[in-house]
Amino acid sequence: MDDRAAIPVTLPRSNPTQSYWQLEPDEIADLRSTDSLPEKAETVIIGSGITGAAVAFNLLNSGANDIVMLEARQACSGATGRNGGHTKAASYRSFLYYEEEYGTETAVKIARLELANIRAVHAFAKEHGIECDSNPCDTIDVVYDEAQWERDQQAVEAMRDAMPGDDASVYTIHSAEEVRDKFFCGCGGDEGVYGGVSYEAGSLSSYKFGIGVLKLCLAKGLNLQTNTSVLDLEKLEDGGWKVETSRGSIQAKRVVLATNGYTARIWKKFQGIIVPLRGHVTAQRQGSKMPKDGLPVTYSFIYEDGYDYMIQRPKGSQFEGDIVIGGGLAKGDNEGIEEYGTTDDTAFDDVIMQALNRSLPEYFGDNWGQDNPEGRIRNAWTGIMGYSPDGFPFVGEMLGEKDLWVSCGFQGHGMVLCWMCARALVRMMNGGDDDELDSWFPEEFRITEERLHLDFHGRLHT
Ligand SMILES: Cc1cc2nc3c(=O)[nH]c(=O)nc-3n(C[C@H](O)[C@H](O)[C@H](O)COP(=O)(O)OP(=O)(O)OC[C@H]3O[C@@H](n4cnc5c(N)ncnc54)[C@H](O)[C@@H]3O)c2cc1C
Hints:
It is built from 13 helices and 16 strands. The protein starts with a helix and ends in a 10-residue tail after the last helix. The protein is of the alpha/beta class. It has 2 domains: 213 residues, FAD/NAD(P)-binding domain; 177 residues, D-Amino Acid Oxidase, Chain A, domain 2 (2-Layer Sandwich). The protein is globular and about 70 Å long.
């Protein structure tokens, strides 16, 4: 893994695989608000994914103006435009580990933040009329591994004890029979389901959500410059930053890195600390015997050395009924290790893609039926995540670098972290780093010297 973490991180690549969500790129995909790059700006935000969009929105909402956003490719074409569309935090699955490593208070804070993030994203879409197929609903984890099933049940108990009557997800444990009857899995063979856990989650088109937030920002005066790569940052002697881009330079009083898996290309201290990881996703037409009214929940399928995650496109959405399933990491060559360190989302690993392509009839067994005559696979693509040694994002001002702000490194988990982290970052930028922020924002997400020197071992089982 050391070798993979040491691969120099590149800029976002040209001509990535086309994600399902971007089959019809939005009208602002290639927008440049002004023909040429402004010479100066109060704030430059690098990256136009959910983080960049949420930081811009919060800044504009708190009275800031003169913000320029630089994006290497099309608007929202990083992980946010290429993910699995799942707003799901299996908080209970990490709860015991966080309790052991960081104490109950931190474990509770993280679980609360994740749920608050899910709710806030769907509520924001509703409040602002963002058409992104927002579908808050329950989810089920179908567990195929005995040891994990035992631990999952303990974890649910531990969370119930630690967060009684709290703003925590309500978890329901299901027997293998219930999983078969209510959730259509594990029928028609010995698929080895041990049981399931259901709780609050949701799905949406993160691409459309991100674009929707960007449009709100544009209406408030954001200057968006797409197809503009940032090549370098230089600290100016009398304060502020010179941002070198593929289209000339721009001076800014402050800079925000919302560059997730690509951050180390701009700020070398993150080399080996925020490590790119390529993820695979497919969109598949549902089988003939799948429920005509759609599946009631979203899914994860948890097996010994990894998991797959899955949503169904809700009623009224484009390609209604399609199933979007991603994961399969540990099924790749060398247990998926080759996926670390690469920023190449122009290609995919055949073995992982084939595993995803055949997974649905395996999971749904007799309930799948015949494949759609047009073929099961509608689309398959990859995207780049940013993984950190301890599994937490980096949020705050860069140590010793005044006015260089960071919110990056969201693992495969950004739709349940980025929104609240952006909110926290903007509070810090506005001088509101106080007890109230500490009451909900985990200090483990802040940038420390110690975290910048951790060894990266990869997290194949997250
Ligand atoms: C295949 C895949 C599936 C996923 N599935 C899920 C899921 O189902 N649920 C979930 O919660 N999370 C999921 N994630 C993770 C989630 O999508 C990310 O954590 C989240 O989108 C991160 O958002 P972001 O805005 O921080 O980063 P991004 O969306 O990656 O945005 C960063 C932006 O910065 C730009 N950029 C980078 N470097 C430069 C530069 N030098 N100059 C200019 N621009 C630059 C990039 O082009 C990019 O647009 C998935 C990720 C992938 C890749």
